[in-house]
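Please check the following.

. . .
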Amino acid sequence: MFVEMTRSRRAPTLTALAVLAATLVLAACGSSASSSSSGGSAAKLALVAYSTPKEAYAAIIPAFQRTAAGQGVTFDQSYGASGDQSRAVASGLSADVVAFSLSSDVNRLVKSGQVAADWNAGPDKGNVTDSVVVLVVRKGNPKHITGWSDLTKKGVDVITPNPISSGGARWNIMAAYGAQIRQGRTPEQALQYLKALFANVSVQDKSARDALNTFTQGKGDVLISYENDAITARQKGQSVDYVIPKQTILIENPAAVLKSSNHLTQARAFLTFLHTPAAQRIYASKGYRPVTASLVDAKRFPTPPVLFTIKDFGGWTAVTPKFFDPSTGLVTKIEQARGVSTASG
């Protein structure tokens, strides 16, 4: 009798505890799901970027995570040639935030419906960093490279990435072309200069960072590159110098949020952070020119005598089909005549 009563009293107690435990588990799951769906802080963001800013984001991401908006946010990161990265996202590569070399690589995602059409409506026009195209040379500049005319001289080995895959390569080409125009040459003469320049190009890597690696490993006399990549190389102890040509182009690098992000609140917070003085100073420490004019150190980042922009040629919307169309582009035809593959992807 005593035993039966004991069992009878224990059974309800155990049942109650089990129900309470299950309730707590379900409540916790519901809370977690609610946090995720309503934009709570816990999230993993996929950052898909072009090849050069990896060192910058290695410092920027922890800085963001120390802010209230960044607490609990983690990141998956992917770096590669800007055009390739853009095409990959358009084809289904998961991304919450993209950071590319060219606005046209973001606009590809606007056309595919993945990025909002007003992504560049802010005061910085969607750009998070600036730079300029420079000529990277061996320590001491043994070939005495001073400007664009030196790159077409006999015996000068030039390295620049492939414009089919690399946004950096397209900036390089438009810097070279635009410099000729700014020197008073006609468009046809500028195009002839590009042909002579490519005749001296020995290696066209997939991305700007790959081209930098090729150069620092000993290949070539001159690397056409981002200023920030040249600074990065020097920070890493590479034996290189760089020359800012008298005529060069302002590089503008954009970033945007994907509409399909499962963590829009956190993704937008990260994008907003990239425009803050804290992030802009980190970019500057890695060789990028801040998009905030008041943060640009004029001694470290001198303004070239003739600095033009892609807008001077109609913007990337006009430049891309004219110069880089896979079939009819002016640069595409130069590459094809030299036997260089112009197939994307």
Notes: The two ends are 81 Å apart (CA to CA). The domain at 131-251+298-337 is CATH 3.40.190.10 (D-Maltodextrin-Binding Protein; domain 2). Residues 253 and 329 are 23 Å apart (CA to CA). Residues 1-40 have pLDDT under 50 and may be disordered.
